[in-house]
Write a structure and sequence with these properties.
heterodimer; A: alpha/beta; Rossmann fold; 2 domains; seven-stranded mixed beta sheet; five-stranded mixed beta sheet; 13 helices; 43% helix; 19% strand; globular; B: alpha/beta; 8 helices; 18% strand
Chain lengths: 356, 229
């Protein structure tokens, strides 16, 4: 008999976090991620955890900072406007070399924007989710099942390299209900380093630990940044994830992540039925970016098409990864609108006409 | 299709754990009562979730001459939990052939019903609890019962029927439906309420299910909430 359950993406993120040993959640409600916090509020007291609705997003991320300092797995979640508010705390966590998980169930922007799904926070998440030189480990799930497996991965990477990790989802994934199998997602476990830096009481047996992001002496600050960038280099070397679909013989390669990649897969099936050779590279980690996979695709593909729920935020990443060897087109909807597979197919046909 | 509608009141409240499938059940119920010659009104009382709601099925309802009453601002820029005075109109409708179905938001969202308690008590009502074994927080009869009592507490109303809507979305097959019977029967026994049907999301299964389980009642419901692909 199947072990599957039917869950909303938001609930699955919460349950996956709990099953990966995170029993400390600090958040502030915002559509379309509120079910995540609600689920935590119901479940965490039953596993001796803490679910706290803070007075604001700023307070919530700083509570995560405090909890993570003590060496426990801690997380917060929000949607786009709330993530902007958390940016300061996120930067402090980077500066303090603290692992944590941040879920961004994106909605339309800018400003208060709307409540419908969007991918308009791509640049914020991958380039500068806070001030200072920084990166987050950013993963973009495309299904509720993948949300579950990526939560475990994100926590493991965060703990291994002492960096905050982010699940970049969207309102559609957060709200949609799909069958999930938690046992299947939890099979891969890795050795994690001991958190010798944690401020969890020295008991007179070791020197005290200090978690801090303030370095008044520029020499020291530069040294800390350089050391962190060595870890970033290792993440880029070891932690890239992507999925390729029918890329080998493709004339046109679509690059899309998250919910959009699913719409693109439907469009690719339709295009293939018409004899147009289309493939898909789906970045699963948005940072580190799957540069090598795209560079390889550029050897055989004639044209790239980036499809996103924004105004083309990933286009430059594809151009850089492929060294501008092939033209890169863009198609997207924004502000909470979703393209249909037919819309994407129309773009494919247009490009295909140009290639001939 | 064989379908003996259990509830008989002119006011039917559909409620259950969040994500149990209340909207799908409400819409299917509205369509089947319409087909049976009733004058049907579907009231979207979901003040909890602005994403999937009965208001999304409005076009289908209009096509079938089913009146819809939605939160005043549903699916607009001001999606605030606000219920219009129009809801009251169904309590003033004296037509014995009319039926009003209330699709109510999950869990504490059922508090929205409280303001109509006097009308419900005065006119009589049926209240259906939708359960789904494959939803993790209500996956045992005990947990489902706990949720049912919580909704009764918030709504200040009492359930009268249970609908077993156990499904795994697109992956629902006959075995998934069958393996929920024990859960559904036990939940109904614990709650001391009649189980009036098991739902089936694939019409093709109904004949086979009736052959194997002639003692049960199956009800076909189509997934009408927003389709993303």
């Amino acid at each position: 008999m199947s072990n599957k359950v039917l869950m909303k993406g938001n609930e699955a993120l919460a349950e996956a976090a709990i099953r990966n040993g995170c029993i400390y959640f600090f958040g502030y409600p915002i559509t379309p991620q509120t079910e995540l916090a609600e689920y935590m509020a119901k479940r965490l007291p039953k596993v001796n955890g803490v679910c706290l609705q803070a007075e604001s997003e700023v307070a919530a991320i700083n509570m995560v900072l405090g909890a993570a300092s003590s060496g426990v797995r801690a997380m917060t979640s929000s949607s786009s406007p709330g993530i902007s508010l958390k940016s300061e705390g996120i930067s402090y966590m980077v500066g303090s070399d603290l692992p944590c998980l941040i879920c961004n169930v994106q909605r339309g922007g800018p400003g208060l924007g709307g409540i419908q799904p969007a991918q308009q926070d791509y640049l914020q998440a991958t380039k500068a989710n806070g001030h200072g030189d920084l990166h987050l480990f950013v993963v973009a799930p495309a299904s509720v099942q993948e949300m579950v497996s990526l939560v475990g991965r994100a926590f493991d990477v965060a703990d291994t390299y002492r960096v905050p990790a982010m699940i970049l989802a969207d309102g559609a994934l957060g709200q949609m209900m799909e069958p999930v199998d938690f046992d299947a997602a939890l099979s891969e476990r890795r050795e994690l380093p001991e958190k010798t830096w944690a401020t969890n009481g020295h008991g007179g047996k070791r020197k005290k630990n200090i978690v801090n992001s303030l370095f008044i002496n520029p020499d020291e600050l530069e040294k800390s940044v350089l050391e962190r960038y060595q870890r970033y280099a290792k993440i880029e070397e070891n932690e890239v994830l992507y999925e390729e679909t029918m890329v080998e013989d493709a004339d046109i390669v679509i690059v899309a992540y998250g919910i959009t990649s699913r719409i693109c897969k439907s469009a690719i099936e339709m295009a293939r039925a018409e004899g147009i050779k289309v493939g898909l590279v789906r970045p699963i980690t948005l940072w580190p970016y799957p540069k090598a996979a795209l560079a390889k695709a550029a050897e055989t593909a004639k044209h790239f098409l980036v499809v996103e729920l924004n105004m083309g935020q990933m286009v430059d990443d594809v151009k850089v990864a492929t060294n501008c060897r092939r033209p890169v087109s863009f198609f997207g909807r924004t502000g909470g609108m979703l393209p249909t597979a037919e819309d994407v197919l129309a773009e494919i046909r247009k490009i295909n006409g140009g290639i001939r | 299709m064989k379908f003996n509608y259990g509830p008989s009141s002119r006011l039917i409240v559909v409620c259950g754990h969040f994500g149990s499938g209340k909207t799908n059940v409400s819409v299917a119920l509205a369509l089947s009562l319409k087909a049976a010659g009733k004058k049907v009104t579907l009231i979207d009382l979901d003040i909890v979730n602005p994403y999937f709601r009965a208001a999304d099925a409005e076009e289908l309802m209009h096509k079938n001459n089913i009146k819809c009453i939605n939160p005043q601002f549903a699916n607009t820029n001001v999606d605030v939990p606000s219920l219009g005075a129009e809801v009251r109109s169904v309590f003033l409708d004296n037509d014995p052939n009319s039926v009003a179905i209330f699709d109510v938001g999950g869990d504490n969202g059922a508090a929205a019903l409280g303001q109509y308690k006097r009308d419900f008590d005065r006119l009589g009502y049926d209240m259906i609890c939708v359960i789904n074994k494959y939803r993790p927080l209500t996956d045992t009869p005990g947990a489902a019962l706990e949720d049912l009592r919580e909704i009764e507490y918030y709504s200040r109303l009492k359930f009268t029927h249970i609908v077993n809507n156990s499904n795994l979305g697109a992956e629902t097959d006959i075995e998934i439906v069958e393996s929920s019977f024990e859960f559904a029967d036990k939940t109904a026994r614990l709650a001391d309420l009649p189980l009036f049907c098991d739902t089936v999301v694939n019409a093709a299964y109904i004949t086979e299910l009736y052959e194997k389980h002639p003692e049960r009642t199956f009800f076909f419901i189509d997934n009408t909430t927003k389709k993303l692909f």
